[in-house]
């Protein structure tokens, strides 16, 4: 991310509450509502692209408070809900 992290909003499903690690892909459970987090980077694991996000649910959740979500498929609407600003100096 050339200009730093961005804020993203997405739909949360029941299975996301129980995420403990790995690349998240929604598989089960009803829609619970929306949430917003800070997207801080990206990567690839075993050929699967993902986004890295910082959650606000504390460091006991997910991967020490962070999660990875599949990239390129607009999973849970996360790629449609990007908000960023560029300061005009």
UniProtKB/TrEMBL annotation:
InterPro entries for the chain: Papain-like_cys_pep_sf, Pept_asp_AS, Pept_his_AS, Peptidase_C1A, Peptidase_C1A_C
Domain Peptidase C1A papain C-terminal per the UniProt entry, residue ranges: 1-84
GO biological process: proteolysis
SUPFAM superfamilies the UniProt entry points to: Cysteine proteinases
Molecular functions (GO terms): cysteine-type peptidase activity
Family: Belongs to the peptidase C1 family.
Name of the protein in question: Papain family cysteine protease
Source organism of this protein record: Necator americanus
């Amino acid at each position: 991310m050339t200009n730093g992290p961005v804020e993203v909003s997405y739909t949360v499903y029941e299975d996301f509450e129980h995420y403990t690690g790995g690349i998240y892909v929604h598989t089960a459970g009803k829609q619970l509502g929306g949430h917003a987090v800070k997207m801080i980077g990206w990567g690839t694991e075993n050929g699967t692209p993902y986004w890295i996000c910082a959650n606000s649910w504390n460091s006991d959740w997910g991967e020490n408070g962070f999660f990875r979500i599949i990239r390129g498929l607009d999973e849970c609407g996360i790629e449609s809900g990007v908000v960023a600003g560029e300061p005009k100096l």
